């Protein structure tokens, strides 16, 4: 089943994209400078990860627990 049709998998993919984009922006800031177009989506995901990092961390933790135990 595709991750787009399963809500649990969709949330996992969204959290992984946010965390990955934030990490890449911290390590290689020139990769995500473009704010429009295709790379603009990843810039926005990195911005969400930067500004809402406590909430993203809680989301990643709860998603990890739910994957392991459920």
UniProtKB/TrEMBL annotation:
The keyword Hydrolase does not apply. It is a single-pass type I membrane protein. It holds the Pfam family DUF1242. InterPro entries: KISH_domain (IPR051523), Ksh1 (IPR009653). Keywords: Golgi apparatus, Membrane, Signal, Transmembrane, Transmembrane helix. The chain crosses the membrane at residues 6-24, 52-69. It comes from the Eukaryota. Its main location: Golgi. The keyword Signal applies. Belongs to the KISH family. This is Protein kish. The lineage of its organism: Eukaryota, Viridiplantae, Streptophyta, Embryophyta, Tracheophyta.
């Amino acid at each position: 089943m595709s991750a787009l049709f399963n809500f649990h998998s969709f949330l996992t993919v969204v959290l992984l994209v946010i965390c990955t984009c934030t990490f890449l922006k911290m390590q290689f800031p020139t990769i995500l400078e473009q704010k429009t177009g295709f790379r603009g989506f990843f810039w926005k995901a990195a911005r969400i990860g930067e500004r809402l990092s406590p909430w993203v961390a809680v989301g990643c933790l709860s998603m990890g627990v739910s994957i392991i135990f459920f």
